[in-house]
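re: ur question from yesterday

yeah so i grabbed the chain u mentioned. its 302 aa long if i counted rite. heres the sequnce exactly as i have it in my notes:
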Amino acid sequence: MPLKTSKRRDTQSFLKSFFLISLICLLWGCNEAEERPQGVISIGGDITEIIYALGKIDQVIGRDTTSFYPPSVTSLPDIGYVRQLGAEGLLSLSPDLIIASSESGPPEVVEQIRGTGIPFVMTEDGFDMPSLLARIKTVGRTLGAEPEAKELSESIVNKMDVVNEKLSEVSDQPKVLFLMSATDGSPMAAGTETAADSIINLAKGENIFSDQSGYRAYSFEALAAAQPDVIMMMEHSLASLGGIDAIQEHPALGMTPAALSKNIIAIDGLFLLGFGPRLPEAIAYVADRFHPGLGLSDTITQ
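ran it thru and got these structure tokens back, copy pasting raw so excuse formatting
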């Protein structure tokens, strides 16, 4: 009889302990869920790429028009262009958190969104490595992914070390024209303080309009007179001009060294100008076309 009583007490004690532990775990788990953002809106293609690289893309419930990498995010609701946001569409998704590019706007809409009390994290600007690493750190801290952010940053830095070491062997710098658009006969080309200028310099090229800042309109004759060795643009810009053949047949551009040698580069805009986690790959891709035979893309993937 005493043995049965002892067993009964042991069973009751075990059940009480199990219930207490389960209750603690349940309450702790609930608090964790409440603290962790469940619905994130990502504004800016580079920001969305960073979130993806940190392994947190499953938390994203909405994105802006410039966010289309990874391709899976295009199935998410589109809240509009990064610089022309609308509060109504964004707020209709009931986000817990918004992480935004520094280019987000207009300012009055950003302030309207912030006025709702929804956490709105604006990331650092800049078209260089320190700025990219700062954005990764900010996004990682915001999403509770500091270890992942540190690992990602170290990987990017290591790749950039390889890129820079290889590019240190380069002596010649081709003259490069970055053509943003050429609609209505008014081509827009990149000067300094632009993502395009930064990419050109990082890949050891020379921007033909380094004496101007921003994107400016030029005549085709002015572009041709600069005699670029390379013409670089986004894929959709090349398509709007009619392709490489159309450039070679153009009365002005067709006489440039770039057109004569068919050294015309068309690249996905987000990959080229996004300054996201794929920056080393973008620089390697461009550098291999500025400096034939360099083999940089193959080097950083080894």
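noticed a couple things. The radius of gyration is 26 Å. also The chain has a mean pLDDT of 89.
anyway ttyl
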